[in-house]
Amino acid sequence: MGSGQANASSATGTKNRVQDAAPQSGICSVCFDGCAGLCEVGKSSFRGREVVYPGPFGKITAGATKKYPVDYSQLNIQGTCVGAVGVDPDPDKAIFPVVSTETEIGFKHKIKLDLPVFTGALGSTDIAKDNWEGLAAGGAISGIVVVIGENIVGMDPEAEIKNNRVVKSPEMEKRVRLFKEWYNGAGAIFLQQNVEDTRLGSAEYAIEKLGVECIELKWGQGAKNIGGEVKLKTLERARELKKRGYIVVPDPENPTVIKAFQEEEFREFERHSRLGMVEQEGFVKAVKHYRDAGAKFISLKTGAYRMTDLARALRFASDGGVDMVTIDGAGGGTGMSPWRMMNEWGIPTIYLQAAAYKFASQLKAKGKHVPDLAMAGGFSLEDHIFKALALGAPFFKAVCMGRALMIPAFVGKNIHRWSQEDKLPGEIKKYGDVPERIFITYETLKAKYGKDIEKLPFGAVGMYTYCDRLKLGLQQIMAGARKFALKHLDRNDLVSLTKECAAVTGIPYVMESDMKEAERILLG
Questions:
Q1: Which of 495, 491, 493 is nearest to 513 (CA)?
Q2: Of the candidates 37, 147, 325, 328, which lies 20 to 30 Å from 406 by C-alpha distance?
Q3: pLDDT averaged over every residue in the chain
Q4: In what order do the strands lie in the sheet with 247-249?
């Protein structure tokens, strides 16, 4: 089935009793009456709906484990020993440190990025909220895009809502402020809007009161084909969010449910967002509405839906004059998505990007506006960035990295806590027990920020350090391809290692690539 044992996963805390499970069902080849029932089916027999989701909620991010027939590992990066693009072909000038990783995104309003990277949409899950300080400040000092995800206002317990419209949200204020305090002239902060956000007027509030300039309309994500979910630990919170218009299950106003919760038959409610209903006229009107409200940059985030929906996303964005479309493929990550869903639904990232390149090329050939594109769905390191930008050139300008960009914020935050408690793990402590020795970029940041370095969250230092590694690695790969700026990357910088990959992507098979030119050189 491609996704490991279908009836057991570390994400849901389930396992098989025997090593040789039945390949189709994942059920143990010998199912024993007397087993404690810790497989997916067995645990679901007593914990039911809890086992739908990876856990524990608020402490983890999860990535799909399904292995697709084609992925980016079946693309390799082409290198050459001839020439240089973007710099003089002189060994003293064509050196990798001069490679530019800067780019611009946008249609009429341009945003400069120091690195072609976005965070994933960091919404109302606890893990995003608990690590926001490092994520926002780290993204700002790294010159990348940080995306505030959906449901921030609706989930803010201190939000003031009058006539079903937000007038104050301390949580939203904090999220914007922490980015702006460290903004260095590159990067930006985006604010997502889903159905509930739109009804509450989240974007209008953020534009007018908080100075947010970039609004992202959300159709979906690659980890699930329904709205966002979180878990709620108290009856009061569940009732509050139901009143704010969310779907809350089980019903926190049902007497039977209340009794079951009070007796600890279950310990958490689920809050769900609604499904959006997309249609062209409404979408174009929404773009115009947010432009009129003061947004300078409008983007669209769409998920791993069928190809017709990808076509809708690109055509509607073209007609609406949208600045950017972020396309999120299946196989990426989540803070809370149904585990089976995120493994078994949707178009995987490389297939979706190959189709998006084709569709964008067709729109351009018809003389229509093609928004800048960004790809998401399981990227984590510099070779992924190179491959995604080259495969989608010239339309794709950035890569969205959800789980990968959260890890440095976790690590930095925890290093700070461990050092205060004198509990640094040995693998970290071997480098030292002060930030100057632990973080390889700390002195660089200290030189830039002076005494303000003491205010910089350790999570932000971790994020900056990770982004610095991405930049260095990307510079080296680009120099090897003899491309000294991102704008010079193209599909000719890649080769397919399998014929199936060539069929999906249109990138030539390795044993066919360059062969005519090779024969001319050899025999001419």
A1: 495
A2: 325
A3: 94
A4: 229-232, 269-272, 247-249
Q: What is the pLDDT of residues 181-223, one digit of tens each?
A: 999 999 999 999 999 999 999 999 999 999 999 999 999 888 8
Contact 321, 370 (CB under 8 A): no
Q: What is the pairing mode between strands 396-401 and 117-122?
A: parallel
Q: Considering only CA atoms, which of 187, 142, 133 is closest in space to residue 441?
A: 142
Q: Work out the burial of residue 342: count CB atoms within 10 Å of its CB; fewer than 13 is exposed, 13-18 middle, 19 or more buried.
A: buried
pLDDT beyond 70 at 146:
yes
Residue 495: CB atoms within 10 A of its CB come to: 20
Distance of CA 429 to the CA centre of its chain: 31
* pLDDT number for residue 298: 98
Q: How far apart are CA 416 and CA 421, in angstroms?
A: 9
Classify 222 as helix, strand or coil. coil
In eight-state DSSP terms, residue 381 is S
Strands 297-302, 494-496: pairing is: unpaired
Percent of the chain scoring above 90 in pLDDT? 84
H or E segment and range at residue 360: helix 349-365
Residue spans of beta strands (DSSP E) within 448-488: none
Listed in sequence order, the DSSP H helices in 117-269 are 126-130, 132-142, 152-155, 170-180, 195-200, 202-210, 235-243, 255-262
- One-character DSSP codes across 104-131: EE-SSS-EEESSSEEEEEE-SSHHHHHT
Q: How many CB atoms lie within 10 A of CB 475?
A: 19
All structural domains of the chain: 1-52 (no CATH), 66-228+276-524 (3.20.20.70), 230-272 (no CATH)
Query: Which residue in the block uniquely carries the two structure tokens 């967002």?
Result: 273
- Amino acid found at 229: E
pTM over 0.90: yes
Q: What is each CA distance from 350 to 346, 374, 384, 404, in whole angstroms?
A: 12, 13, 11, 18
Distance CA(263)–CA(47), nearest Å, equals: 15
Contact 145, 103 (CB under 8 A): no
**Taking 60 as the threshold, does the pLDDT of residue 1 lie above it?**
no
Torsion angle defined by CA atoms of residues 296, 356, 221 and 335, in that order, rounded to the nearest 10 degrees: -100
Question: What number of other Cβ atoms are within 10 A of residue 435's Cβ?
Answer: 20
Q: Which residues contact 80 (CB under 8 A, 6 or more apart)?
A: 481, 482
User: How many other C-beta atoms can be found within 10 angstroms of the C-beta atom of residue 497?
Assistant: 15
CA distance 300 to 322: 7
Within 10 angstroms of residue 280's Cβ, the number of other Cβ atoms is 12
Phi then psi for residue 466, to 5 deg, are -65, -45
What is the distance between the alpha carbons of residues 427 and 419, in angstroms, rounded to a whole number?
13
Dist. CA 378–CA 120, nearest whole Å: 11
Structure tokens that stand for 68 in this block: 């697709």
Q: Characterise 168 by phi-psi region: left (phi > 0), alpha (psi -120 to 50), beta (else).
A: beta
DSSP string, 140-169: HHHT-EEEE-TTHHHH-TT-EEETTEEEE-
Tokens 């990066």: give the residue.
Answer: 77
